[in-house]
Amino acid sequence: MKHPLRILTGTTASGKSGIALDWARKTGGWILSCDALLFYRGADIGTAKPSASEQREVPHYGIDLSPADQVYDLPRYIQHALEVLEKAEEAGVPVLVAGGSGFYAAAFHEPPPDPIDVPAIIRQRVRELEESGGTEALRSALLEIDPTPDIDLLNPRRITPALERCLTTGLTTQELRARHRSIPCPFDSWERIWYQIDRPPEILSERIQLRTQQMLADGLVTEVEQLRTAGIEKNPTLASAIGYRETLSYLDGVLPLSELASTISANTVRLATRQRRWIRNRMPESRQIQSAAGM
Fold first, then answer.
1. Is there a contact between 107 and 186 (Cβ–Cβ < 8 Å)?
2. 94 and 151: one domain?
3. How many structural domains comprise the chain?
4. Which single residue of 78, 216, 243, 279 has CA 20 to 30 Å from 119?
5. pTM for the complete prediction?
6. For the domain that residue 190 is a member of, what is the CATH number?
7. If we measure between CA atoms, which residue out of 274, 85, 44 comes closest to residue 17?
8. Domain housing 211
9. Do 93 and 167 sit in the same domain of this protein?
């Protein structure tokens, strides 16, 4: 039986996990996380990962897919999600996708990444160009190939991959984007229903502060010490995540313990603001809910 695929978005600390659990208990359904930080084993407290008892009670997927020292990427997640949905279809159970990572939630309505295998010789060429002339040299090289690039030319992190992809394919950024839009979404065969939970900023800020205090009380510092031993710093995605990067700074003697909670909370509030903007601009029209009863 093919149930509609429900997708629940919202900012960090908005209460998605609780709503998802209530929904799963009511329906007998499964939860598929699309939170990029829940992919990593051992990263539990700092990611607000569902507890072991919650995972025993309700089938959870999209969790603990990778060691902490290895980056997990979108193509692998899409394959995992498709396998979960096919398994759920065979079992005749509904699935709720839930998470605050907009990049991964968007995969349920956007085309997958355009796979371009950039040759090592081109990567080396671009690297040497940057070393000799910096961002301006990269920008000039891109403009020679593509006079009107469809990227932010003020953002160095956008210029390098754009130049590599253009050199590899011989296409402009606009042509690459058009080609990407022509790729079908992997989840087009499912009926998709989108939901969003959006807390007022003052309530969300209070929830974030309380959650930060609870994470520290539950042993966040010890968890980061263990993750450092496991090689977290080899994984920039996890090591730079809010909660982990501040705790690493504390362990390195850069951030005082007295400022750890407030710094994590302030950075999380800023993250929530960015997430709200992403959801508004990139997600399909969603039903606003405050509890599982709205689903």
1. yes
2. no
3. 3
4. 78
5. 0.86
6. 3.40.50.300
7. 44
8. 201-274
9. no
Non-local (6+) Cβ contacts of 39 within 8 A are 62, 63, 64, 65, 66, 72, 77
Helix (H, G, I), strand (E, B) or coil at 77: helix
Mapping DSSP onto H, E and C, the string for 195-250 reads EEECCCHHHHHHHHHHHHHHHHHHCHHHHHHHHHHCCHHHCHHHHCCCCHHHHHHH
Q: What's 234's domain CATH number?
A: 1.10.287.890
Q: Looking at the structure, tell me whether residues 16 and 76 fall in a common domain.
A: yes
| CB burial readout 268-290, b (16+ within 10 A) else e | bbebbeebbebbeeebeebeebe
Dump pLDDT digits (tens) for 93-123.
Answer: 999 999 988 889 999 999 988 778 899 999 9
Residue predicted with more confidence, 280 or 267: 267
Residue 193 and residue 6 in contact, taking contact as beta carbons nearer than 8 Å: yes
Looking at the fold, whether 41 and 108 belong to one and the same domain comes out as yes
